[in-house]
Amino acid sequence: MAERAGGPAVGAWILVAGALLLLVVLPLVTLVANALADGAGPLATLASDTAIEAWRHSVLVAAAVTVLAVVGGVVGALVTERTDVRGRTLLRLGMVLPLLVPDFVAGFSWLQAYAPGGLTDDLAGVSLPWLAGPIGVVAVLAAGAVPLVYLVVASGLATRAEPELEQAARASGGGRLVAWRTVTIPLAAPSIAAAAALVMVTSMNAFAIPTLLGTPDGFVTMTTRIYRDLAFAADSEAFSRVLALSVLLAGSTLVVMGLADWLLPRATATRTGAPSSSAAGFRRGSWLPAAPLWLYLAVTTAVPLVAVLLTAVTRGIGLPPVPANWTLDHFGEALSSQFATAIGNTLLLAVLAATGALLLGALVAGLGRRHGGRTLGTAVSASFAVPGTVLAVAVLLAYGGLLRDTLWLVLIAYLAKFWALAHRPIGGAVDLMPSEPMHAARASGAGVTTATRTIMIPMLWSTLAAAWLLVFLFALHEVTMSVLLYGPGSQTMAVLILNLQQLGDPTVTAALAVMLTLLTLLAALPLLARRRLLRRLKWR
Amino acid sequence: MTRRLGPMAVLVLALSACGGVASASDPASAAGSETITLYTSTTQETVDALLAAFGEAHPDITVEVFRAPTGEINARIAAEQREGAVRGDVLWLSDPLSIQQYDADGLLREWTPTELDAVPEAYRTERFWGTRLLNVVLIHGADIDPAPVGWADLADPAYADSVAIIDPGFAGSAFGALGYFATSDEFGFDFYRDLAANGADQLSAPDEVVTGVAEGRYAAGITIETPAQAAVANGSPIEVVWPEPGAIAIYSPIAVFEDAANAAGAETFVDFILSEAGQTIIGDSGFQPIREGVEGPPPQGEQVAPDWPAIFGQSDELLEEYRSIFGG
User: Fold this and answer.
1) Do residues B249 and B304 touch, judged by C-beta distance below 8 A?
2) What's the pLDDT score for residue B21?
3) Domain layout of chain A by residue ranges
4) 20 to 30 A from A481, CA-CA: which of A6, A28, B62, B162?
């Protein structure tokens, strides 16, 4: 089979390698070359107080968020997967749902809910003055990262850790907590560590929440420093700093990834028994373990979203959010000429990015482990770790002269970033696929193309759909790269909302945030409605 | 050969999909139309209303808009200069000090608008012309007692830690106000020093000040009149004061870039903004038109302004000294 597949495989290999070169390697090389060509400038900036402060803030935020999110995610996963909690399905959904809220909407919604002058201040005179500042950045980022940890650990618990061993521990007289501590958590350690690395990297690269909650307080991270220097500073010193900090940010991320790879427990538990449902212990159908989780979800997600909705429908800023003051005017104001352009751009980019990333991801997956396909797959996965801010600066340097202010530029960045997002689930599904049907088709005389079309694609159909939707959703939310790359005519919804928010009128911002969140929920309905699709997305 | 078709088909598909991007982002490719690019810090609502009317009057010209705060426009122009050339055709800012820096660098085109004489002489130079007046006013919470009545009151201990001002590095209107306070005999930089000593907060945008005062986070603030009046109309609990000795009137200038790719289209656009039709729309959108005799929100009291030509060229020094007081 290998020799007959040589032709298309070589073609696919060249295509994938070429795309990787153009989308990721060339921009990054251009970035480093620019930083070096700038002479001593970037080096001097790296040693400056501004750069060191930004680096320290980024690392501290990432560390704090990782600790909080791991605790929250693991507790959530233990409750839904290892107790007989009532309303488990709903709780699982509730734990993942915050992933669908764009992170800048999440940051904005916390401000509307808990900042001085916000919803709880209006209703009960309670507010969190520290929300705009480092603590607020950590809190909101952690709340957003908990679902990620939850997803990874919950699927790890479902496939790796063995309920039988826990039952044995319980039967030998250990309490529930002893069983969790001695059996469940050690067995789930690989997925917990993987989740921690994932959160560490994403929070170090986070942009929207630090810019919403940190910048007004003067708390600057690497990503927000790069943004401010690129978008608001006109001097060449600021540009040197952009180059230097971009290289530093990429380097720091790579170090974290490398360390995680090196330290991550390699031994994975092999399942010995058949999958069985979770351990008993709580009275059947107890609400008890769910109560703190529901409270947590209410505080971190429900109340903030209600606050945004109320801001959007309340006539004037500073008026109490009671029905007498409600109006739909702000939604009308939100429908400016910019809105029409932005929503069109956003949908077009999301469809193109999802389709492009799916094709590229499928190509890499199709190469499988042969013909250096594995190396390419690893390279594609690694590209996901390149911070969006760095990728955007690199793409701007590499293609800005030619494509500045066009949607092309944004699309290149999206494809480079989201390729891995499509590749991983498809690659995972291909790995698990039985090879017999393909062999049978090929033995019966079908060519590779025919066999792929008639056997492989139908078998992978739901995975492909899920991967497409995943990229589509990420592209709808994307703001980190878009905000650095947009120009006249190529603004996206997320950029529009962020810019409006910075201009300081919360009512129209809230109306737009509500619309974008509804759009996301609508797009995600197929994922939520079909649990099979959701299962396919579980991060390996 | 058919076996090679797989990846090739994918490539063709990817390319044809991308074709959609080119046509979507490049309206100029449509037959018989031309495009101009406008860089502006003017309120979206005003820009939208003007574009709609301009589109009716000149259906052959498409206007691409980059609308952002003054600071962000400055950064964009700097980046474009680094890459070779400014890509905009028309520059429309909020204050004369910011645009004068570009004029000094030779970035603005010299020409004569059709209705030049309609613009009062104090509000124009040879390469940029005022389009409207932004009135920088004082606002305070409706329940604040005693209410501040003059600029100097903001340094009063009664409003300690409870005054919000706008950042001149971000908003052009704040830069214009800085030009007035810093160079006036009555205030000078001591005004800013007193505000800082009284615990005033520097926010970015004028709307942010309106929001902060409306939500009760600040007792009073300095902002521009239009968003403040819009908030009052929506029922927000704030009051707008034309302070002693007057609101600071800042003219919002427009110009054509020297390197404009479509200078003719750009001039048509500027002519339209200065025309009676354009000025009426500006008045309707809540700003005081530059042309006398065009309907718009009337001044509610005295207006003051610095001697603009006298402070042209001092922008950097003004901002630097301000930064030494308020940071940023």
Assistant:
1) yes
2) 41
3) 10-39+333-540, 48-232+292-318
4) B62
- The pLDDT of A204-227, averaged and rounded, is 92
- Is the CATH code 1.25.40.10 the one for domain A48-232+292-318? no
* Residue A481 CB neighbour total at 10 angstroms: 27
Beta strand extents in B2-153 (DSSP E only):
34-40, 61-67, 90-92, 129-141
CATH for A10-39+333-540 is 1.10.3720.10
Pairing of strands B163-166, B288-289: unpaired
Cα–Cα distance measured from residue A385 to residue A141, given in angstroms and rounded to the nearest whole number: 18
Q: Looking at chain B, how many residues does it have?
A: 328
- Window 123-182 of B: residues touching A by CB (8 A cutoff) are 169-170
Closest partner CB to B236 (pick from A118, A316, A408):
A316
- Nearest C-alpha neighbor of A8 from the set A450, A458, A463: A450
Q: What are phi and psi of B67, to 5 degrees?
A: -110, 125
What are the tens digits of pLDDT across the range B67-97?
988 888 998 998 888 878 899 999 999 999 9
Of B189, B205, B180, the residue nearest B155 (C-alpha): B189
Assign A223 to helix, strand or coil. helix
Which domains, from first to last, does chain B contain? 34-131+251-298 (3.40.190.10), 133-249+318-326 (3.40.190.10)
User: A405-462: per-residue pLDDT in tens?
Assistant: 899 999 999 999 999 889 888 888 887 777 788 888 888 888 878 888 888 888 888 8
Asked if B212 and A117 come within 8 Å (Cβ–Cβ), the reply is yes
Location of structure tokens 């209303």: B49
Helices (H) and strands (E) in chain B, counts: 12, 11
Contact criterion met (CB < 8 Å) for B64 and A499: no
Bridge partners of residue B248, in order along the sequence = B136, B304
